[in-house]
Known about the structure:
Layout: H1 9-20, E1 27-37, E2 41-49, H2 64-67, E3 69-74, E4 78-84, E5 88-91, E6 96-99, E7 103-109, E8 112-117, H3 121-135, H4 150-157, H5 170-180, H6 185-199
Antiparallel strand pairs: 1-2, 1-3, 3-4, 4-7, 5-6, 7-8
Helix pairs in contact: 1-3, 1-4
Amino acid sequence: MSEKKFVDKYDILADVVRALRDDTMDVLVETVGARKIGYASVVREEKPQVPMPREDISVTGVSKNRMYADSIKIGKDILIKRMRRPFTHVKADKNEYDVDNGWYWVVRTQSGEAMFEANDKDFLVAWDWALQKYDRPNGHNYGNHVFYNEKLRKVYAGPGKLKSSDRRSKYQKAIDQLNGLGVDPQKLAEYILEKQKQNN
Length: 200
């Protein structure tokens, strides 16, 4: 039986940083820890809630989904989720109560899965950056993020990928590509039409 390959948790987090450097990757808040009640109020919930619709952040600067996010997805393959630790039930002389033991984070990428404590500085930088991208998907999100782990600093300083500024339609891109290959799009269209008539 082969042994499982050990993956450093910062290699997993490096996948997240690499994805955040790629502006073609979408960031979505998947669940939140609050439910909307009324026009502008929210109430905290024990169970994760489906996020509220994306709101205008021009007034507050931060969306409620960002404030109450419990899990986010980056692209197709990266998931970050807040996991609550079980409460400790305490019996005292006159009453009983539950002690909140906080939470930790689970990060899943194609490289594997890692756990981060709630106060891990490098994780919190990546989490905040991801939520910035969620709130401002069309903004420039490289900013001034400070990572403490050397692996993460190297990935952060490495190459990124910007969204294409090419606004041509798919049809126009196809025509330009055919012209680039020396093919007359009009003649090709006529040839295809003739072949279709022969096959019918």
